[in-house]
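Risk register update: the risk of archive-format incompatibility is retired. Evidence:
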Amino acid sequence: MRKLHADFTVDSHPLPIAVGKISFIRLVSAHGEINILGEPLRVGKRWKFQYVRATIATETQRVKIYHNGRLLKQLRYQLRKN
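Archived output:
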């Protein structure tokens, strides 16, 4: 087992958000909502009990919600910095 040096410190500055995409698979609730990173997003009751894919584009800070490859909604999604 390797040990860290006695003078080792961790840089606690927050890392910048990288440009890219983050995808989630979520089940739409009976109320027509999904939950992404602790925030509810309205999809619509038409899609209740269906699985959807929500993709966040970090550069544009928008989320796109798809069902079976079809775009259902596109919303603004403010990413938290911490």
